[in-house]
């Protein structure tokens, strides 16, 4: 059995909204939307990888909160794991710095207004209750 490589995604939450990032590369994914993130490097904890990837891709200082239940296959040997995350106080606003050309904060009502990558759809569904909780908490 080949070793699987974990790709982490962030369900970045703010005021009852979820951040979606539009891919600019590779060509077969360009124009579709995803939860931002990236590969976990050798010896790196998934949570640390997610914080690093959000800094590299979006220029933000974020913290992970909790793992979203489930794991979703990507092309072998990759699997997607998702954590909820939030911006730390004083963080810059997210900017599409790497691999993305647009960002959108989506409310619960807008969540399906974007063309999500197929593998992100189950994770987005799992995150919806957290979106509702975030709205109620304010």
UniProtKB/TrEMBL annotation:
Its EC number is 3.6.1.55. Gene3D superfamilies: Nucleoside Triphosphate Pyrophosphohydrolase. InterPro entries: MutT-like, Nudix_hydrolase, NUDIX_hydrolase-like_dom_sf, NUDIX_hydrolase_CS, NUDIX_hydrolase_dom. SUPFAM superfamilies: Nudix (SSF55811). It is an enzyme of class 3 (hydrolase). GO terms for molecular function: 8-oxo-7,8-dihydrodeoxyguanosine triphosphate pyrophosphatase activity. Keywords: DNA damage, DNA repair, DNA replication, Hydrolase, Magnesium, Metal-binding, Mutator protein. It catalyses: 8-oxo-dGTP + H2O = 8-oxo-dGMP + diphosphate + H(+). Residues 3-132 form the Nudix hydrolase domain. CDD domains: NUDIX_MutT_NudA_like. Its cofactor is Mg(2+). Coiled coil: none annotated. PANTHER family: 8-OXO-DGTP DIPHOSPHATASE, NUDIX HYDROLASE FAMILY PROTEIN. Belongs to the Nudix hydrolase family. This is 8-oxo-dGTP diphosphatase.
């Amino acid at each position: 059995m080949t070793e699987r490589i974990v790709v982490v995604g962030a369900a970045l939450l703010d005021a009852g909204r979820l951040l979606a990032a539009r891919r600019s590369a590779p060509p077969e994914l360009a124009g579709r939307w995803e939860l931002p993130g990236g590969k976990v490097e050798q010896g790196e904890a998934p949570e640390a990888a997610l914080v690093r990837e959000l800094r590299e891709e979006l220029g933000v200082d974020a913290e992970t909160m909790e793992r979203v239940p489930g794991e979703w296959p990507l092309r072998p040997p990759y699997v997607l794991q998702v954590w909820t995350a939030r911006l730390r106080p004083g963080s810059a606003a997210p900017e599409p710095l790497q691999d993305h050309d647009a960002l959108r904060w989506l409310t619960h009502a807008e969540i399906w207004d974007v063309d999500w990558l197929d593998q992100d759809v189950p994770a987005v569904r799992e995150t919806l209750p957290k979106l509702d909780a975030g709205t109620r908490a304010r």
